[in-house]
Design a protein that fits this description.
Elements: H1 3-26, H2 35-70, H3 79-100, E1 107-111, E2 115-119, E3 124-143, E4 146-150, E5 153-157, E6 162-179, E7 183-193, E8 206-218, E9 223-231, H4 236-239, H5 252-257, E10 261-270, E11 274-281, H6 288-292, E12 307-320, E13 338-350, E14 364-375, E15 379-394, E16 397-412, E17 417-432, E18 445-457, E19 461-470, E20 491-506
Antiparallel strand pairs: 1-2, 2-3, 3-6, 3-20, 4-5, 6-7, 7-8, 8-9, 9-10, 10-11, 11-12, 12-13, 13-14, 14-15, 15-16, 16-17, 17-18, 18-19, 19-20
Helix pairs in contact: 1-2, 1-3, 2-3
């Protein structure tokens, strides 16, 4: 080895180590389970091994220096040159020793879709992320012409047919990672609608919220148990993070008829082909205001919870590809083929009904959903089906049954531009009510939406625009303020269309 090769090798090793930390961190992907923690641990183990290699290189470099000192009588090594070389070697060794010391009690930090801090031994990891979604929404509704007399003068009340404006839909910070290697955690706080599932004017009230707060213990490589505030293992569309949706917002169907966030405990299992979750909890708030309650979004007190009991169970089958592919709905060009199917069920019993109390021990909800997701590498397809039954949600409504389905797909026009489309259909198919009681759930509705995603920097920075038409009336139950679909007095059929645009920042 040449003398200058020794110095270049030492500096190169230090630079290589820096690259290893950055590249290793960038490979950690968000996962819907503890495979993410395993991937992070593999990266940290690789860094630890490389640090040990650096120690060995340091020792070899010192031996080479001894040889150089012994040969300092050669012509090329002047006194001035020798001092320069000694200074260079000292800098390289100091830098390498600093990096090697991280394998003890040092701290590693970097960027990988989010910022992270980690102990060098891999026992502790903190990831810091954020989600910001700024939207513009334009909604047009056509109202019935209702002629009436006011002060003896015929008038026509049309309502506000054009509603539009900007909003900061959500702004969140999240903290996640693991402690002692096998304890995972997530804590997400932020700003948004205090109750996205509420009816009427309270559906557009914004404020500070707690989105998730849970701890999960990985019992084995396959089994885990989780407790706290988390997403119920039911609807795939809701389990996908808000920043990884295909359209601007989830479908109105999934937000109204699916089980969302709950407080309780969850047992989980995952291997290379099957993922299973079962949760027992205090109930979810979005199921048609969750059997009459007015508080829809947890957390709530133990003595004022959403239901007397509730449970959900979901099983997913990975038929092709990797689990990490299905953390989002899009399938970027070059991604391998992936196929996943899922089934889930839920049951919930209300503790009380109505804001003023009033026991209603008979009120119950049962539901089932099934879905399939296909990733083609440059195109994607997703379809889901829901069935829901509500029993005795009100004295006048002893039995109500609902069906719904969503189909959406996309394809990339180039590396950054993606076209997508969604069709959703849903509503009641069997409403049994007391004589003289009107149907509060309206009729079945159909919505068609088209749009584009422009990925400025993947999912981290993207612009989304979509437009859609509701072919049937959206009443107070089927409408959802956060999605942009609104209800109104005496709306006609074929009476509503919607345009939405969103700029997203996520890390």
């Amino acid at each position: 080895m040449s003398r200058w090769g020794v110095f270049r090798g030492g500096a190169g090793m230090a630079a290589c180590l820096s690259c290893l930390v950055a590249v290793g961190a960038s490979q950690a992907q968000e996962a819907a389970g503890w495979p993410e923690a395993e991937e992070t641990q593999r990266v940290l183990d690789a860094i630890h091994a490389e640090l040990e290699l650096v120690r060995g290189e340091n020792s070899q470099m010192r031996e080479e220096m001894d040889i150089l000192r012994a040969q300092n009588d050669e012509d090329w090594l002047t006194e001035h040159r020798a001092e320069e070389i000694k200074g260079l070697v000292a800098d390289v060794l100091a830098d390498a020793d600093t990096r090697a010391s991280l394998s003890g009690n040092g701290l590693m930090a970097g960027w990988s879709d989010d910022f992270f801090l980690a102990s060098a031994d891999g026992r502790f990891l903190l990831k810091i992320g954020a989600l910001l979604q700024n939207r513009y929404i334009y909604n047009h509704r056509k109202f019935e012409k209702d002629a009436f007399f006011r002060n003896g003068i015929p008038r026509v009340d049309r309502g506000d047919k054009d509603v539009y404006g900007f909003e900061v839909t959500t702004a969140r910070l999240n903290f996640s990672g693991h402690v002692f290697k096998d304890i995972d955690y997530k804590f997400e706080i932020g700003y948004g609608r205090l109750d996205p599932y509420a009816f009427g004017s309270s559906a557009n009230t914004f404020g500070a919220r707690l989105y998730e707060a849970w701890v999960r213990h990985r019992l084995t490589d396959n089994w885990s148990i989780k407790s706290g505030l988390f997403k119920a293992p039911y609807s795939r569309e809701f389990l996908i993070y808000a920043g990884r949706q295909l359209l601007v917002e989830r479908s109105s169907l999934s937000m109204r008829i699916a089980t969302t966030r709950v407080m309780g405990a969850e047992l989980g299992y995952v291997d290379d082909e099957i993922r299973f979750q079962y949760s027992f909890n205090s109930g979810s708030g979005n199921l048609f205001t969750a059997l009459g309650r007015t508080e829809q979004v947890p957390p709530w007190s133990y003595d004022n919870d959403q239901g007397e009991w509730a449970m959900q169970s979901r099983t997913e089958f990975l038929l092709a590809g990797e689990w990490s592919q299905f953390n989002q709905f899009t399938s970027p060009p070059g991604q391998e083929f992936g196929l996943m199917a899922g089934i889930a069920g839920q049951a919930q019993k209300a503790e009380s009904i109505g804001e003023g109390g009033g026991s209603n021990d008979l009120a119950k909800s049962y539901g089932a959903t099934a879905d399939v997701s296909v990733m083609f590498g440059g195109a994607s397809l997703f379809a889901s089906f829901y069935w829901e039954k509500l029993l005795d949600v009100a004295p006048a409504l002893p039995n109500s049954n609902f069906l719904g389905a969503t189909v959406q797909g996309s394809f990339y026009m180039d590396q950054k531009t993606e076209f997508f489309a969604r069709y959703q259909w849903g509503g009641p198919y069997d409403i049994r009510r007391r004589p003289g009681v009107n149907n509060p759930f309206g009729e079945k509705y159909q919505i068609v939406q088209l749009g584009l995603n422009y990925y400025i920097d993947g999912q981290n920075v993207k612009f989304t625009i979509d437009g859609g038409v509701a072919f049937n009336e959206m009443n107070g139950v089927s409408a959802m303020n956060q999605t942009g679909w609104l209800d109104g007095p005496d709306t006609e059929h074929n009476a509503q269309w919607l345009i939405r645009a969103q700029l997203q920042l996520m890390f």
